[in-house]
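protein under study:
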Amino acid sequence: MQLVIGNKNYSSWSMRPWVLLKGLDIAFEERVVRFDFEPGSAFYRALAPLTPTLKVPVLVDEGLAVWDSLAIVEYIAERFPDKPVWPRDARQRARARSLCAEMHSGFTQLRSLCPMNIDAELAFVGQRLLATEPSLHRDLARIGELWTDALAQSGGPFLFGEFGAVDAFFAPVVMRVTRYGLPLPAPLQAYVARMQEAPGVREWIADALAEKDFLEIQEPYRDVRGAVPTLKR
């Protein structure tokens, strides 16, 4: 299997299936296609034979291309039924899929206001946004509800007990919480800490920090034209 992804520092959608595969010890080949959204770019030329959406991630397995992170997760679950992609219990699987679907289509304010940027320390930006954006508080409150309920029912250490699809889907949220200094109750901060140490997540973070490929279009809060990125104030 080959997983086609974008820049690890920025690509939250790529992060989800990558950390799931790593966390479940499923072998795959990684292919990084550098973000470049100019018409006719190498990014679009690489994706054109694989997906009509021209977006990452894409999973390629024996000539089959599967795009969209949610579809990729479902394919992994069917391809590797012995792995705990979803909870074993049918009712819990339904709940887990509901959480993934909500993450997949929701939390638009958190996504737009706090784009994933693992290399950056943006707590100053986070405090400014919290002071001016009520919608960000609403997204954080809803995430807190989902995580609290899941951990209470499963007993942890991850949202449905074992590391699985739901944790992988919320991994980019963990990156946003830590990089933007966003507040969560203490029990959820403990979950955030566990997530950062989960094998696949820890490896993705290390790769993202080593990347040093800063793109102006992905940096609303930093000036990356110089050798060292500086915060835009």
In short: The first helix runs from residue 12 to 23. The chain has a mean pLDDT of 97.
